[in-house]
Amino acid sequence: MTTTMNNIFSTASLFTFYASLTAILSLLQQFYTQFVPEKVRHYIASKIEQVFSNRYPKTSFTLIVNEGDHDYDMEKNLLYEACKAYLTTKLRSCATCLTGSITNLDEPISYGIAQGEEFVETLEKDGIKIVWKFVCRNAQGKEDYYGHNKSFELCFDLAYKTEVLDAHIPLVVVKYYEEMKKTKKKINLYSKESRGHCWNSVQFSHPFTFDALALDPTFKQCIIDDLDKFIERKEFYKKVGKAWKRGYLLYGPPGTGKSSLIAAMANYLKYDIYDIQLSRVDDDAMLRRLMLSTQNKSILVIEDIDCATGLSRDYSNDNASDFENDESDDEYDDYRGSRVTDKVTSNTESKVSLSGVLNFIDGLWSCCANERIIILTTNRKEKLDKALLRAGRMDVHIHMSYLSMNAFKILVNNYLGVTEEHFLFNEIEQLLETVNVTPAQVAEELIRSDDVDVALSNVVDMLKKRLNQLERSKKKGIDKSQKLLKGEELEKDGSV
């Protein structure tokens, strides 16, 4: 009986002691959390971890391959892309979870790796086991399915660190590079988000090629030859100490195919396109960061550079441009539209300076990436500061002029499939020598009918109409000049 009572009291005492100890530890934890600063707690935890790690050394090694530097948005990590392609092919047969997407019904479904998916790889040669894991983390560093910080974590025995880092990982990169050369590269079109310095991208599916471009065939071949020469001269650029880049200035009236030429160049080179709108760039520092976040093998485009504040000069007192000498009033309205755009742009908050753009194109920061093409477009070349136009910045100046007969035949072949001479070609050629029209204006007439005779007749009618407008415009100009000589007051009349 006495022994039983002693056991009961001993058990009760044990529970009492446990309850008291738990309460004391809870109070200490609350005190530690509430009154000890967070930095101090982190310091204590790191010291404790360091003590135990020194006593019990790790036997495994982890390699973390991030998608990119999310603090600075520098170049995309190509090792990450290589690991992604390599692991996707491995997981197709054994993964328990994959992501699927498709952007074009004409293309196969693209499969990707799901958050948290693991794959154990055993190297055939050495029998080394590598545990691959795909992880998405949020801003706090915690695993999150919707996290933007993506990475691959490779865990393996520390004893095989040299074999994995110096042999297997470079092999993954080589396999990825060879696969990219074999397969047709998808082209992406990037644009800047309304806020910040990040890029949004969509797949660039513009079908335009050099074959469809309405330019004189000889002139078109010169552009192709220049591009070919550029991509083959990596060692030459290195030898002469120049950044491996090339600048193209596309200038001419609206509707002459400047954007179409950019699409043709991208499809020909298989380069991504970065559309840089200076009105969305806050200052020179952001412009520099945008440039640093672009990849190699890309085309950087700034359209309508003449409309950017601070990058163009006032031409209100300049002589008439080459374009104004032979254009009708409605074509001149396109240029007046450009002037209105200047006023709107000047009211934006963008503080990009001419110096910032020059450094973007040809400064020290422009050497931070290779094999890039920079394209500026403008409707008025004479508005641009001469510093933008010099060789080394804009190496090639391409005048996108009005439609010629050779270019017209390309349009007719594209829209109507006509490869032989047509009885209306002579009349159209005579009209094109007198009237200035853009490829876009003629294409609008050709697309209205599938009947060759009807479509070409529409083109003739349109050209004749514009010829009459031009003659009336010239006549009106003579009448106004005569009135000025007589000292008569001119009436404000915007009609043609």
TrEMBL record:
Residues 244-404 form the AAA+ ATPase domain. Keywords: ATP-binding, Hydrolase, Magnesium, Membrane, Nucleotide-binding, Transmembrane, Transmembrane helix. The keyword Ligase does not apply. One of its GO terms (molecular function) is ATP binding. The chain crosses the membrane at residues 12-32. This is AAA+ ATPase domain-containing protein. Its cofactor is Mg(2+). Residues 318-340 are annotated as: Disordered. CDD domains: RecA-like_BCS1. It catalyses: ATP + H2O = ADP + phosphate + H(+). GO terms for biological process: response to stress. Residues 321-333 have a biased composition (Acidic residues). Belongs to the AAA ATPase family. BCS1 subfamily. Pfam families: AAA (PF00004), AAA_assoc (PF14363), AAA_lid_At3g28540 (PF25568). It comes from Saponaria officinalis (Common soapwort). The keyword Nucleotide-binding applies.
